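Before the break, one more example. Copy the sequence into your notebook; we will annotate it together after we see the structure.
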Amino acid sequence: MRGGEPGAGRRRLPAGRPATIGTTAPPVSRTVARTARLVVRWFEPDDAAFVLRLLNEPSWIRFIGDRKVRDVEGARAYLDRGPIDSCRRHGFGLNLVALRDGGTPIGMCGLIRRETLPDVDVGFAFLPEYWGQGYAREAAAAVLDHGRRVLGIGRIVAILAPDNVRSARLLDRLGFRAAGRVKMPPDDEELLHYVSETGLP
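Here is what the structure looks like once it is written out:
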């Protein structure tokens, strides 16, 4: 995900780590994390109405791209082909982020496996009314911890549009370092490339 809070988001895996990453994953908990204020969990088809709104926010379209999802059925198809399918196949993907108190969905955050990148990348996007309250950082930190501690992924990257200043600041606070630029197919759009490594063997 080209990451506002829409944010960053695109495999090199450390040796000796679980062979299930990138293959058919065993059954795992659909709740990725519970933080002080948030629940991060796998998407379900019933989340389509929320996803429809998020994908059509001007900030999403500007920083991530127009997915041309215009109705609930299209949003349900987007979930089934994307986040839900990724979690089924890899054991991770983009997740719903909801407020712990009341369960209101406010954004998405997760890890993404792309054919166009050698590494797993982190992606995040939140509704504008929840920007500036630390939710993106809280969710992303939990997702990164889950990726490293539970999935054993030692190197996680992020990509984002050059003008996405908010997300660049967030990546810096999360411990990512700038690593140049990368061209992403199909149109070879040039995006900023960030890297975070834990030093896992």
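The chain has six helices and eight strands. The first strand starts at residue 31 and ends at 34. Try to locate both features in your own notes.
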